[in-house]
Amino acid sequence: MEQMQVRHYITFEFTGIDDKFVYVVTEEVKNSVQQELLNRSWEISGLVIEFEDTSGRKIAVNAGYICRCQALFDAGVFPAKDADESEPDMTIVIEGMSKPLHYNDIDPDDAALVASVMAGADSSVCSFVSFTDEDGEANLIPADRVMLLESIHYESAFEEDTPENE
């Protein structure tokens, strides 16, 4: 007998972008993103919210650009995801561009760099970050104008660079 499952989603919509960005997440992640958005003004510094979807992809969203975020769920029996449903290694949505940029063969360190510059970007300064695409070409993008970054899993700086207090 098939077990009924509840699947949780978070969707984001941005001004000027026709696409809706939908992520399958755990209920805990869904609740935590909602709390982060609702409690932004006094608890959390910085505009960027980071989370992982159920496939382990890392998502970084600049809250300053969100027009709508929906926390959804549905119940049912879901087919297993096909392995050939390939997603790009990295998708970037930049303010002023109507279509998302998709990249393959991205080094996880490059994705981590884009996310960290995005999270630390000072809105009064235009902070560019560079990464290499699948053709070996440099791409320079203004990190402070990245609305959404979706990428393959990377180790976050907090996970690996925690110096021991002496």
Secondary-structure blueprint:
Elements: E1 5-14, E2 21-25, H1 27-38, H2 40-43, E3 48-52, E4 58-62, E5 66-76, E6 90-94, E7 101-103, H3 108-120, E8 128-132, E9 138-142, E10 146-151, H4 157-160
Explain briefly what this protein structure is:
This protein is α+β, with helices and mostly antiparallel strands and 166 residues long. The protein is built from 4 helices and 10 strands.
Please tell me about this protein's structure:
The protein is of the alpha+beta class and 166 residues long. The protein has four helices and ten strands; from the N terminus they run E-E-H-H-E-E-E-E-E-H-E-E-E-H. The chain has helices at 27-38, 40-43, 108-120, 157-160, and strands at 5-14, 21-25, 48-52, 58-62, 66-76, 90-94, 101-103, 128-132, 138-142, 146-151. The strands form three sheets. The protein has a five-stranded antiparallel beta sheet with strand order 3-4-10-6-7, sandwiched between helices. Residues 158-166 have low confidence and may be disordered.
